[in-house]
Design a protein that fits this description.
Elements lengths: L1 H25 L15 H13 L5 H13 L3
Helix pairs in contact: 2-3
């Protein structure tokens, strides 16, 4: 009975290790880091900025200012 318990525990541990390894290789462990539709880098920031402007969260002046800041941040 004890051997069965330890065997099941070992299988569960190996499965957890494999899932974690796949997540790290595919997109990282941070929440949302592997979500499609949200590219990383300046393109993602620009998309979020456009969404916030479209939703009315930013004025035109704020939008233009933040857009300029994003443009200056590029190498």
């Amino acid at each position: 009975m004890t051997a069965l318990f330890y065997g099941a525990l070992l299988v569960l541990g190996v499965m957890l290790l494999v899932v974690t390894l796949v997540r790290v290789l595919v997109g990282g462990l941070e929440p949302g880091s592997g979500r499609p539709g949200r590219p990383s880098g300046t393109g993602g920031a620009r998309q979020i900025l456009e969404e916030r402007y479209a939703a009315g969260e930013l004025s035109a002046e704020e939008y233009q200012h933040r857009l300029r800041v994003l443009g200056e941040g590029r190498a």
